[in-house]
Design brief:
Layout: H1 14-26, H2 30-43, H3 48-60, H4 64-77, H5 82-92, H6 100-115
Helix pairs in contact: 1-2, 2-3, 3-4, 3-5, 4-5, 5-6
Length: 116
């Protein structure tokens, strides 16, 4: 992942930004978390971890289909990014996700690969 640790126009490090987001999620301040994530992604649209945080926030807001759309985009960028599949499985469990059987197979395969 090629993302900066500190932006030139920001006084905050990436780690601090992540801490803001995680704190906001923990406190159910999803709108704030989304605003921080959106601002970051405007400058660094390829940051897969931030996209995953966006998907998590959308899921917490019960916007499951939007969350799934973000996660599917992440999966296209990095098909081996296992955290995306884990979140996709959780989000899909709340919907009539048409690809659930494929997702279950991917989930099982990734689980087997992590225990080896």
């Amino acid at each position: 992942m090629n993302t900066p640790t500190k932006t030139s126009d920001s006084k905050h490090t990436r780690k601090q930004i992540v801490n803001f987001i995680e704190s906001a999620i923990k406190e159910s301040e999803y709108r704030f978390a989304r605003a921080v994530i959106d601002a970051w992604l405007e400058n660094y649209p390829g940051d897969i971890e931030m996209q995953l945080y966006l998907a998590l926030v959308l899921m917490r807001e019960k916007k499951y289909l939007k969350s799934i759309t973000v996660i599917e985009r992440i999966s296209l960028l990095d098909p081996e990014y296992v955290p995306a599949y884990k979140l996709l499985y959780r989000a899909a469990s709340y919907t009539d996700y048409a690809k659930m059987d494929v997702l279950t197979a991917i989930w099982r395969r990734s689980a087997l690969n992590t225990t080896a």
